[in-house]
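Fold it.
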Amino acid sequence: MSKPTITQVIKSVLAAAIGVQSNDNRQKDFTHGSLSTYVIAGLIFTVLFVSGLIFLVSAVLGK
């Protein structure tokens, strides 16, 4: 099997973030994927998620 595509990496990171990653997909990620790819994607997701929460709270509070 070849390296995972960017969309597969994004799907895996999102599934893992909300806790619905299947064991089969997790095993596939660890055997065919690069650790650095998933770490970078996870960090980007985390920054975007926290930024989105900050924006949402600021918008709701009107600040």
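The mean pLDDT is 90.
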